[in-house]
Amino acid sequence: MSVTILLQLVENGLVLGAMYGLIAVGYTMVYGVIQLINFAHGEIFMLGGFGALTVYAWIPGVAHLPLLAALPLMLIGGVAVSVVVAVGAERLAYRPLRTAPRLAPLITAIGLSLALQQVVSLWYRLPGGVNAKGPVSFPSFSGKAFNLGGVLVQPADIFTLAAAAVCMAGLTWFVERTRGGRAIQATAQDPDTARLMGIDTDRMIVLSFAIGAALAAVAAITQGLRYGQISFDMGFVAGLKAFTAAVLGGIGNVRGSMLGGIVLGLVEELSSGVLAHFHTTAQYGQAWADVWAFVLLILVLLVRPQGLLGERVADRA
Amino acid sequence: MNKASKASYTDSAARGFRRVRGHVDPRAAKALIAVGSLGAAASTFLAWTWTAAFPGDLAVYGYPGGNQLITLIVSILTLFALGSAVGASGLTGTRWLVPRGRVRLLRGLALANAASTWYVLIAIAWELGGLANLVAGAWVAGLTVLLPVVGAYLLPKDVRAPAPPRPAPRPVQVGVIFLVVLLGLLVADFGISTGYAEEFIGFCLAAGFAGRGLAVSGVFERFSALTARNRAATGCACLVAAVLFAFLQTSDAYTTVADNILIFATVALGLNIVVGLAGLLDVGYVAFLGVGAYTAALVSGTAASRFSGVVLPFWAQAVIGVLVAVVAGLIIGAPTLRLRGDYLAIVTLGFGEIFRITMNNLDGQSGPQITNGPEGIYGIPDLRIFGYDFGQTHTILGHAFGRFANYYLLLIAVTALVVFIFSRVNESRIGRAWAAIREDETAAEAMGVHGYRFKLLAFGLGAGLAGLAGTIQGHLTSTVTPDQYTFSASAPPNSAFLLAAVVLGGMGTVSGPLLGAALLYLIPYKLQFFSDKQLLLFGLALVVMMRLRPEGLIADRRRKLELHAQQSLPAGEQREAVGTDLQEVEANA
Hints:
Largest interface: A-B, 49 and 52 residues
Distance between the termini of chain B: 55 Å
Largest sheet of chain A: 2 strands, antiparallel
Structural class of chain B: mainly alpha
Structural class of chain A: mainly alpha
Helix content of chain A: 55-70%
Strand order of the largest sheet of chain B: 1-2
Number of helices of chain B: 24
Oligomer: heterodimer
Number of strands of chain A: 4
Largest sheet of chain B: 2 strands, antiparallel
Radius of gyration of chain A: 20 Å
Strand order of the largest sheet of chain A: 1-4
Shape of chain A: globular
Radius of gyration of chain B: 26 Å
Number of helices of chain A: 11
Shape of chain B: globular
Strand content of chain B: under 5%
């Protein structure tokens, strides 16, 4: 197996992992403050993609702009949809259940996830009446891939890595350097004491949902750009992987979620790529990538349940 | 309008209504109910519309058909309930049955009749395009069903202290149980055999309102007290009723439905052990059903199996299926159950997905050839137990049992087994350990409950029961494919539907998942027009249920207290609930 192929796999893994990391932030922040696995986060991610597509397809003129110029508008649209839905879900579905037994909000989240998928599948329309019951096409970069010593880097890959880097830098700065970020950390550590110190914990919870949703929307756009299509059910597997990434990195830990995402992306690409490369194991390649990702989750839970960087959640259990 | 003014508005309306009620002679109100019910009953012998375009012989004079039958039955029930209330003390014995007063029951029945009948009338006018399609009989029905509602609400609520339970002789108690269970069988049979969507909706409206009437008037309370004292008899009665259902059916059409409901219900009951009793959220449960089905299919001797040379008898298939499912459950559960509870949800979700992918991939292309990939294992032979071939039609007691009826009888036995395991385990030390873990694991551990061990036991038991159901399901459907076992699909059983059945029916109860599974299977089956919206509606139903009635349709007393901790129950009910727990403690001591 040549070094070039290996490097290519690493590049693919990094890009995939950066996308997982962006989604994982949403799980980890929400879990950090209220210990809820927001099952509907995969759908928040999916809705971000459809929000961006709506801007592209329905606002006259946007589709005729160069993609690089249209992207900021699509980002605004996607982020807006995701944030509105996530905050709405928190207000209407999760907040009333905050003192309920743990099973209740979890079941609510599953219900919400089913409902959001179906809403898009039943009623989303593109111009010309194309429905979203199957995958719908998403604009993608038309430029040729860059060749770095044999390793092909697609334009969408550069966008993904840049977006992930900017988002993570911004988020780290926000969480660690600003009053709002420290308030979120305090809420995650001990909500009762945080409230006694004058922190509006309800607002911090909403803020966590909103930040996670915004990053998920960015991830959805990178996914659309990379694969040239999005679909109403893409949130299910992406959400499952991203949660795995969050657990891998240490739930509640913002940097951990990006690290976990990248590790997961690398493991997925390398395991399936390396297996596919050798003749005897070729059949355990691409088709089994999801299985290897999941086996990794079980192994991590066995060996290091607190994740790579350690978990940071309130002791509320 | 804000909440306060709305409340005061309804308050003054209620006051005004009570003032009117004060001036009405109860005898007049009862007469109104009697006249209305008789009129409604009579109207069902008239035609309601002029054309046969509306399903179910509604255009015929002389006998009731389709939805008219529902109106007739409910009218007669209303008259019966009224009859037992007329006179100084009513029919002896019936007063004891209705501790919270017969008027509430009358109101429920009157509403049931009005809702069901008005629904049909509106459906006729809507579907045939105009009120002109309603003929005289319909107008008579529409007006007369309203009279009992007015009458029942003009009667004062007869809230009396419940008569002290006067224990009837044992044979009478047993007789009552059998009678009630058989009535329940007839109602269920009617629901399953409804021929078209309008009839099913009419049935649901009538059954729903009447059931509510029975619940608020305390009939269910009495009956559940009765069954609690005669558990063996209740079990027998249910079993007899379930077997009788097969005798009531003459074609395979509804036995197939019943088979599917039973598989769905059995698996939902198994999930209820995991979710309802032990409080572990398993969102990939259908994978264990798949493990059982695939295992049985592989050793069933079908030519499509990799091991087609291996032909095991059913009992061996069942044992192997259960064992493989339990092992899968332990592999998933052992690393996860030590950790925080939420991780289990995501691991089981992942396991469900992995199971499907693996079955897809073991096709000779992406892996060794074991499962035929997406095509699945087909041609699974029918079961044969003690020489009884399930594929053949057998005549027992003069009734021909076809293939689906044979499976129905076997599934009844399996459901009974699962119900037996569920209730015995729930009432044992294990069940109390699960309740303790569910409520507060730290406290339970401090009391010496080995949390991990009991959680693993629940998870393994649940997996095994699903595996058992799977071994039969494989033979029933004769083909197993990976797509039967997904997280969400438009037809049950899949993990999302199973969870919905448990949550809607009532976590931690036996009857809850059975009712939930029956409803969740019948609603999409009977209402085909609704099929592409059902996942949306179930999703929303889960959200709304968790908000408004987290204990489900049938509430477990202990869980009701758990879920409504801050908004305490009415004093009487709370005392009763605590009382039951005390009785339990005493009984166990």
